[in-house]
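#onboarding

Welcome to the new folks! Below is a worked example of what a typical request in this channel looks like: someone posts a single protein sequence, and someone else replies with the predicted structure as tokens. Don't worry about understanding the tokens yet, we'll cover that in week two.

Example request:
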Amino acid sequence: MITVEQAEQIILDNKSDLGAEITMFDTSAGRVLAETIRADRDLPPYNRVMVDGIAINYSAFEQGIRTYKIKAVQAAGEQPIEVDSIDECIEIMTGAALPASLNTVIRYEDITIADGTATINLTAIEQGQSIHLKGADKKQGDVLAVPGQLITPAVLSLIASVGEAEVRVKKVPRIVVISTGDEVIEVHKRPTPYQIRRSNNYTAQAILKSLGYEASVLHLPDDPEVISNQLSQCFQYYDAIVLAGGVSAGKFDHLPKVLNELGVEQLFHKVAQRPGKPLWFGKHGNGVPVFAFPGNPVAVYMCMHRYFMPWLYATLGQPQPAPVYAMLNNDLEFKPELKYFLQVKLLVNEQAQLVAEPIAGNGSGDFANLADANAFMELPADRSLFNKGEVYRVHLINPL
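Example response:
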């Protein structure tokens, strides 16, 4: 049995590299960038007017001129209009390019316009005010976004602004989530007193979907031959396989043996943690990783967040999310020498501290309380007593 940290490192050491593909920029939101995006020109590309008003030459104001003849009106996107004399101005709109003969903009709220003239109603102004200077944000050739960066709406805006109609992104793994067990039936069916409806594969699928990723779902009976045939096909089509159930030491837990026969190298089996102690991880000869989680719902929920998502981020070349820490709100005792992933509800107190309220449960099969929790708190294995006010890492599973 290995530690949580050892399991995490083995999983990250076996990240995949699926390469990249080209997609249209307007469908790239949520994908991971696989190229460097550079400015194709200065940003902004010209001295950009920031308010609606008039543009003047500041030296005229210094000389005491307060009323100016309006030569023309210039809209955004139009060629700049130059003035012929110092007492002339241009009515100019937000986003327009500032004429070279003018260097200061006064907003409409601070002027009076009558009979083709504009009068400034201020005693003081600043030279260059309300102008976004050319190249103030980025210079031509500057890096705007880098590989591994998630394409957020803001990043997509940058991609569009430099004319990248097509963008190179990391390929997303084809993922299948497979539940196992004869006691597990379809959601729409009526169970006997000794059966349960299957939810684990749908739960894992929903976790991925909530984070922007798709996954297929399958269910396999406790039949080694069927399991072998179905998994053989999965290894040909999918880039990652997640299994729920069938990896413990029970008589009908066929997966470890079948996986070995199919050429999957076991990299570890069992982790010093609760829930999820029987966690199994291996890699097929063609490079497809296999995550085999124990079949209880809480373990599946925790293992997806603690192990599968870090693998997915690493495979996509995306930085791991920054760790989040919270303060325990109650004293707690946990005696087994296992790392304990405690279900908690996170709250922010009046001191702006993140506080974790433990949620009482009835073990790893008690999934009803997951709806009330929004995180797992990771408590170290070398302690049995945990005191109110102590700070530990948390893994978010639901919005705060």
